[in-house]
Request: fold
Amino acid sequence: MATSKKDIASNLEGFTHRRFEDGEKDWASWGDQIFVGDETHKCPTYVHKTPPCQGSCPSGEDIRGWLNIVRGIEKPTGEMDWKEYAFRRSTDANPFPSTMGRVCPAPCQDGCNRNEVDDYVGINAVEQFIGDNALESGYTFEASNTDSGKKVAIIGGGPAGLSAAYQLRRMGHAATIFDNHTELGGMMRYGIPGYRMPRDVLDGEINRIINMGVEVKTNTKVGTDISMEQLEKDFDAVLFALGAQSGRGLPIDGFDESENCISGVAFLEAFNDGRLKAVSGRVVVVGGGDTSIDVASVARRLGHIKDASEKDRPENVVLGHTAHDVVDIANMEGANVTLISRQPVENMNAAQHEIEDATREGIQIQGSLTPVSVVRDESGRATALRVAKLDYSSGKPEVIEGSEFDLEADLIVSAIGQSGTFEGMDDIANERGLIDADKHFQIPNKPGFFACGDIVRPHLLTTVIGQGSITAETIDHFFKNEALKNRPKVDVHKFNLMDKLKEVGNTPGVFKAIEDERAIDAGLRGTDGEGKSVGGFAVHNYEDRAANEIIAHEELFLGHFAKEDRKKRSEHVPTAEEVLGHFQERMDGLPEEDVVTEAKRCMSCGMCFECDNCVIYCPQDAVLRTPKDESTMGRYVYTDYTRCIGCHICADVCPTGYIKMGLGEH
Reply:
């Protein structure tokens, strides 16, 4: 179907059809601009940069890479299909695509340049499809064929420890995970409810790592069941990835003294263990992050038993004094749940869609409140949380005098932060109940000791997974007695053209300079008129800046992209009337057709996606497609500089910002 002028004008609304670095929008003279174009000294060069989705991803996934595979731009070699190829590219950085596609708050989507056109690319939705298909298809991970003979003890089987174990096995190092729980998973299992993170999915992704030859010792607490001295004797390196398993209480009068004041971490672990099946009638949660939302949502789903016995009080279950029997839902009522935050609601750390879902479920959310004290009865139990209102008009929170009031409560849950548990390992902790580590995740002054994950700084799952990958690299350098270099400015798993050329059998030859002018005359340092490297030595005028630069939307030609609605996953978020006992998974994955369509919305920022604009619009026929036998991702077009007049049209019409007028600059 032909595109009308009206449609084109609509697509270009808000965008200029050419880009000017000096900010001008009007041509001084069309004739001058056209006919003096051949006087410029600049010609196009091809510059690879990191897209903001990738730069925003704490795991450093090659997001643009696997989206281009899903859409069919980058194709696998051999008999591998695109689904497995996308899975392999995705899991180079993060071995949990199915998990992260469901629960990651997706900073990549916040940073997506597509937001400047219409709406972000549904990266999470595509990642979930990649992960779910991998589980259904039975894809496995392979350990290195080479055994280094080195052994690493990993304390903690959560996302950081599992990520490190995965990368270490790929490097050929042995890994043994010690965990004090019955099952591995850490906060993925014991901190996230099953309706957000289905356990069969989590188990599948964990087992895929374990099956690489990772030894596992569960129900084993380092420091008590096995000593640190024994670990040092038996292993070549020790990695602390034990997570922050102790929740912080509220630093106010009466909290520590009241038995019905507990931490959010303990609350969620008791629920995910299957011990906690009901709460008290009025629950007040203090926090503002995703953990506090999970606590409140679980409390709403559990409901409460009216006139519960002493043993059924939730604090007794959470603290391990007792356990709930199977509770008859018919005897339960919805719990009254209030979540308060020191931040205004719009500035809470929790993801916006999680806040909206919690509100729909009947949770009362109040911002700009600070806890003052716990109100207790004669027996010492908390009956209310006294709070005060905060004023942010000065730019910082200030308590409004005389604004105190009480929130009645049968259970008060603190979800304001976490720390580690160090019984038998006391000398390793800092004053904050965490572990100090340098930027390479080495523990200072303790050679062979490393730490990563929440025990260094509590953060997102994707953050600690990325830390596990970096720590594995550091351990590998330690074993090889190699000096550690500075991490890249943009520290991500990125597309590597040389690796791609090797994959497709087009690796450039090794060039050795010949002290003979005839070598230069023969063009051995350049390319011929058809874009082929003379002698097979050179990569045609390609520059990789991906380790140093993130490409901003100002460098793109946004007018190229038509506005398209994002393909959204359907969610089953219960209403306040439906939430009691609602533990079904909330998120439906996209069908394959919608996944491919959504991947095509990716603008491939900083990398050619083979749109042919530069070939079509070049007035000199100087931009040509690379011959098929040498063409591959990142090497689709070349410039014949004997024809190029430096008019910069190719750079102007390049949607992805891949073409720069840089050749000839000094």
Summary: The CA atoms of residues 232 and 330 lie 54 Å apart.
